[in-house]
Amino acid sequence: MPDFLVAPWPWYVVGPLLGLFPALFLLVGNRMFGVSSNLRHMCAAVLPGQQEYLRYDWRRETWNLLFVLGILLGGLIAGTLLRNPEPVAIAPATQASLGALGIRDFTGLMPDDLFTWTALGRPAAWVLLVAGGFLIGFGTAWAGGCTSGHGLSGVADLQPASVLALAAFFAGGIIGTYLLLPIVLGGFG
Amino acid sequence: MPYLFLGLLFGIVLTKGEVISWFRIQEMFRFQGFHMFGVFATALPTAILTVQWLKRRGVRTWSGCAIDVPPKALGSGRRYVFGGLLFGVGWAFTGACPGPLFALAGSGVTVIVLAIVSALAGTWTYGASRPRLPH
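^ Those are the sequences you sent over. The predicted structure of the assembly is below.
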């Protein structure tokens, strides 16, 4: 594999590529690019139930579920064929901040202290995965979109709702990082 | 099939760009590094310019259909603020938004399936409580 594919891709390559997706989805089939709606489609497929929210024909959204399957396969290719053996080159200040929270492993994309099956011996790992995942699903459904659907698609269409949502995503992230993460990592061990 | 291919590309770019890395997301929320801000600062103008160009030129899809983007109702804005804040906390906890959840699962961080299952439970719970939530 050529070095430039294996090395991490710089922001000025990644940003413009990600920015093309809303236009590509419109060009290919007049579709709105977004990922979180697929969480709803998966719920509708698995647990149709009595909910008004999940009572629709999810099969019409198969194209979008295929998109998600593609993301998974893309992650697989990038994590095997194109795998970068080096640690993520984060700022020394971030290493210090996370070190103070008890993070010791900086070798991969995620810290092994928290995001491996063996780390599940720690209650903090459960809280981050289960509470974090729940908030992603609940929050994006409530907001009607995520970083893709609002952050890229909605902002690209200059929708005030999406600009507001993106600002709220960031505010929530800052609250999670500064207020809640120290509690989870400190209090739950 | 084009969407499977687009997903493949999206997953590779997210992973190689380290956008799915908890470390990078922490660096961003702590304002300690430029990488993620550089990604957003180039992605957003690219998205705005290309979509506005398609709309203003009246470009059609490759099969010749008209392109129309449905507006999102702003309403009181509360759903965007409250939902957005909750999602932001989840983003900081897992280091992932919905796209990266799936890219991470593919890239070998298999324990992230717990977050995916939990996200589905979260979306289901929203559906069940939607009539009682402000929008």
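Chain B has one domain: 2-132. The radius of gyration of chain B is 18 Å.

Shout if you want it in another format.
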